[in-house]
Write a structure and sequence with these properties.
This protein is α/β, with parallel strands linked by helices and about 260 residues long. Helices cover about 35% and strands about 20% of the residues.
Length: about 260
């Protein structure tokens, strides 16, 4: 286990590979652990980091640091302390919101963003996501497979306050009100079978600016990286392989993704 002390609090992370940096940010249900497979794939070309946010996994529990802004500050401080420059971000639900909060404050620090099952408004979150206990959420959202059980084995370490505080902050903030104006190339990925997060409407998808794009991974739910790791990892590597500054819409040029683009 690797850890760093940031402003008196322990932050747990894991790292693999060499090359340009990529940071994986987990969601409300889980920890760094469900990124293991994606990290292994990314590490062939990147230095892959996965961080436990405050209140999750083995990172310190500190209710004063559970807001989206403070979680984003964790990422900024981590990059500073580790001497990491411009990064690619891969974030899942909460992790995607933290990623966009980071972009809002430090846009020049991010080369590209992959946002998985990211709610674009609070109402896109199923009410059960906001009220159920962590074991209930795992039962509801994850397949009963050995892979899913292992990937979500840190769920019991989650501080429920970290979940409720970040959701309350998301509800009251206007974080994504101007997300279209963020100039960072961003790929939105959704599992059509996800019961927790409703994907954006077709109208909203069609109105995305040219540096943003959406792909739906057929047959996946709330955890595309667990439900179909081969499909997810291929999309991830294709996105990461784009030239810096390139629009993710260039993925449409690849026949494999044409069928999956909304």
């Amino acid at each position: 286990m690797s850890a760093i002390i940031l402003d008196g609090s322990m932050v747990h992370y894991e790292a693999l590979g060499r090359g340009r940096p990529i940071v994986f940010l987990h969601g409300w249900v889980g920890s760094w652990r469900y990124w293991i497979n994606a990290m292994q794939i990314a590490s062939t070309s990147f230095r892959a980091y996965a961080i436990d946010l405050f209140g999750f996994g083995d990172t310190s529990h500190d209710p004063l640091r559970y807001s989206l802004e403070r979680q984003a500050d964790l990422i900024n401080r981590f990059l500073e302390e580790m001497g990491i420059g411009k990064v690619a971000l891969v974030g899942h639900d909460l992790g995607a919101l933290v990623g966009f909060s980071f972009i809002k404050q430090w846009p020049k620090s991010v080369d590209r963003m992959m946002a998985i099952n990211c709610p674009l408004e609070y109402d896109a979150l199923n009410s059960r996501m906001r009220t159920a206990t962590m074991p209930e959420l795992v039962e509801w959202l994850a397949a009963r497979t050995p892979e899913a059980t292992s990937a979500l084995s840190d769920v019991s370490k989650t501080d429920p306050l970290a979940v409720s505080a970040s959701m309350a902050g998301f509800q009251s903030s206007n974080l994504l009100a101007s997300f279209r104006d963020y100039e960072v190339p961003s790929l939105f990925v959704y599992g059509p079978n996800d019961p927790a997060v409703t994907p954006p409407s077709q109208e909203r998808t069609d109105s995305l600016p040219t540096h943003m794009h959406q792909v739906n991974l057929e047959g996946t739910g709330h955890f595309p990286m667990i439900d179909n790791p081969t499909q997810f990892n291929r999309l991830m590597t294709d996105f990461l392989a784009l030239d810096s500054g390139a629009s993710p819409r260039e993925l449409q040029m690849k026949e494999e993704w044409k069928r999956r683009v909304r």
